[in-house]
Each structure stands twice: as structure tokens, then as C-alpha cells.
Amino acid sequence: MDSYLLYCVTDLRAVTVAxxxxxxxxxxLYQLWYREALLPNQSDAPVAVxxxxxxxxxxxxxxxxxxxQPQDFYDIVSSLLEEAPALPFRFPTLVQGRGPESIVLPxxxxxxxxxxxxxxxxxxxxxxxxxxxxxxxVQELTPPAxxxxxxxxxxxxxxxxxxxxxxxxxxxQGLFSEWKSRDTREEVRCSALVRRDAIAAFNERIAGYENTxxxxxxxxxxxxxxxxxNVPELTFPNENA
Amino acid sequence: xxxxxxxxxxxxxxDPDISLLDVLDHVLNQGIVxxxxxxxxxxxxxxxxxxxxxxxxxxxxxxxxxxxGERAKLPPxxx
Lengths: 241, 79
Hints:
The complex is a heterodimer. Chain A is of the alpha+beta class. Chain A has helices at residues 22-27, 70-83, 100-113, 115-124, 147-171, 199-207, and strands at residues 2-11, 16-18, 29-34, 37-38, 48-52, 55-63, 86-88, 94-97, 128-137, 178-183, 188-195, 215-223, 234-235. The longest helix of chain A has 25 residues, at 147-171. Chain A starts with a strand and ends in a 6-residue tail after the last strand.
């Protein structure tokens, strides 16, 4: 039994694929090329693409004893994102079967059955990536004298972080198309949807941000825009079961 | 007294601990969700078990990273 890890759905017109052999091509399965070479995964197997129309699903063979690594998953999706829009699967989405045909046909059916959803999402994020901002309050707290004092301090801390988030959004206006915030109690996490050609300007402007609330902002790299994806939970078509 | 920077760019900081935690947060919590009914019928094995196993591996890695980070923050032992 072989295990395959599904990486992402992408636009076939934006990536480079190559035939491995006629048997694979007949199934609609190709190898992904990245920077003029095959892209290997954690098992040193080349990442493959199951093709259905203009849609492709990147997947990788993990062998018979799968231990999918999140860093490997992220690296492969990031490589693909350099050249094309990509809708990552939630890690780990594993498929098992005997031989590539048992995997490829249902994956192609998945692409076919949800082609409209995938195509719309790929179009929406064709030129956009996500930048995440974590806002932390780094003010030193004195041990609370009572439970009430603790709750008041926590409320003030949360308020300071939310004010910083609002200020940051206003400060970055014009450099993002969508913005989402959520309060996790420990920090406020913001995600900005940024055009690829505006990422350098976004980073440059945010590097100059200062506030008076002892808030620290951690900015992390461009990611696939998963926070903004609105793809419903999918099912494989039953006729392929 | 020098102030610590208010904005930290993780991608430029070469901080593998923060990066891995960020990666885990993104890949485990987000993305296309596919119900596994067909996957299970193809596999003939309990995919939930497989998924759980993989997630546990990730969590173990995360806990090692967190533990290493906490150790780094501890003050030197007093003699």
C-alpha cells in the first residue's frame, strides 16, 4: 500500500510539468518542474501533478510508512507559490492505494467535481499572498493582588493589543485588499491579503511602524492565502469509491 | 537604554523556532478539507488513525521546539 500526501490545487497553466512515462501521462499524471528541475519531497520522490483540465493537484509519494513532515509540506507549497496560485490542503491529507491509478483517478474526479470552486478561488488569489502579523503586549506585569486585579490587567492588555491592531490596519491602508483579525487572548493575530507586487512596499512600511502601547508586532513571510480561502468542506465523488 | 524593536520580520530573523511554530499553525489549522470517506475505501485502513498519527508527530515536534525555547529563556542555575 502506497501513501500519497496531497499538497495543493493549482493552475496548470502557471506551472511547468513534464511527462514521466506514457503510462503516467495516460492517467493524467505528470511530474512538477521547479527552476528547471524536478522538485523532490521528503521521500526524495518527485512531486507529481494530477491534471484535470486547467486544474492540477500536486501530490507526493511517501512510500509505505508515511510520516508526513509539515516543514516539507510547507516548502513544496511555497515553491509552487513562487510561480503559481495555490490552494493548500489541510495538512496532512493522505490518500492510500495500490499503484498511482488508484490515487490519480479519484483525485482527478475531485478536481472535476469541484472545478468551479477551485477555479474561482485560484482566480481570486492569482496575484495575492497572505502576510501575518502577531501583536503581543510586552509590558511587564506586576503580580496581581487579587483575582479582580488580574482580570482587569488582562482586559487592559487585550484592549491595548486590539487598539494596536486597529491602528496597524489604518497605518497599512492602501497596501492590502483584505484584512482579518482575531483575539486569541495571548495575542491578536492579523492577516493581510497583499498583492504580490505590493509585498516589498508592505514590508517596508510596516518596518517603520511605532506605537506607544508597548506592543510588539511579529510579521511573518508571505503565505498561501488560506485565511481568506472560502472553500467548503469537500467530498470525493462516490462513484470512485 | 536601547529599546527592543517593535516590529520583527520573522522571514529575516533566521529564527527557526518561530518559523516552525508559524508553519505548524498554518499547515495544521488551515487549507482545503476533504472528507475521507473515499480515502478510507481506497486505503482499506482507518485514515483517521493515519491523520492522527501524523498530527501527533507534528505536535511532538512542536513540543520539542517549545521545550527548547523555554530552556533557552531560563536564567543560569545558581550555585
